[in-house]
């Protein structure tokens, strides 16, 4: 329970932790950031690490002169790209094993085939949009790998999504993170960065399920 409490505290007060990291570890903070982003995007069992809020705070610290924007952006970009590639590779490695499974309590081949078809058709935009959704950005590249998405296509959209995610949110933090109103309501903003994309993802999944249930059965 102490680990869970510490993790929640880190997510909600990531600005204080990052400032402490900068003060205590100096340039090593970039390695710490690399590891956090890489693990969140590259290890499918770590979807709960902060992503959007972390990038926003990094941008704010760069805007305050505590970190270097020209160093932070490339480091985070490389971490985000390599993380998704690692996650994709894990799923790709498991893919052949998954194809051999029969229908069971833990695996539904029909659902898997639908996922495969979906990623072949919409995988690119899914990989990009998932960057901005907690939990989804961890599972999307893994599922893309399991679903055998075309690797060059995945890589292209991986790079595009990482660029939009890292540069977009860090730059927003750089210009707006040190405004008095933002600093005063930072915890609410962090909650918003976590909850709003998550609720949108849940709503989208619910609508997709409803649409599938009401679709006419093809003869």
UniProtKB/TrEMBL annotation:
This is VTT domain-containing protein. It is found in: Cell membrane. Belongs to the DedA family. GO terms for cellular component: plasma membrane. It comes from Lampropedia puyangensis. Residues 49-174 form the VTT domain. Signal peptide: none annotated. The chain crosses the membrane at residues 27-49, 56-82, 122-144, 156-177, 189-206. It is a multi-pass membrane protein. Keywords: Cell membrane, Membrane, Transmembrane, Transmembrane helix.
């Amino acid at each position: 329970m102490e680990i869970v409490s510490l993790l929640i505290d880190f997510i909600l007060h990531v600005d204080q932790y990052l400032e402490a990291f900068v003060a205590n570890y100096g340039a090593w903070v970039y390695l710490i950031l690399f590891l956090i982003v890489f693990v969140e995007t590259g290890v499918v069992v770590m979807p709960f690490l902060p992503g959007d809020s972390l990038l926003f705070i990094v941008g704010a610290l760069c805007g305050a002169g505590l970190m270097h924007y020209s160093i932070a952006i490339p480091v985070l970009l490389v971490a985000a790209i390599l993380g998704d590639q690692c996650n994709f590779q894990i799923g790709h490695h498991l893919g052949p094993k998954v194809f051999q499974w029969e229908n069971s309590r833990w695996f539904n081949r029909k659902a898997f085939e639908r996922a495969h078809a979906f990623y072949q058709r919409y995988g690119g935009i899914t990989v990009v949009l998932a960057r901005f959704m907690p939990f989804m950005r961890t599972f999307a590249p893994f599922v893309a790998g399991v679903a055998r998405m075309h690797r060059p296509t995945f890589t292209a959209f991986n790079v595009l999504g990482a660029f939009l995610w890292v540069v977009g949110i860090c730059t927003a933090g750089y210009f707006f993170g040190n405004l008095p109103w933002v600093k005063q309501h930072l915890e609410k903003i962090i909650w918003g960065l976590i909850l709003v994309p998550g609720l949108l993802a849940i709503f989208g999944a619910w609508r997709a399920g409803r649409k599938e249930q009401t679709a006419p059965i093809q003869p």
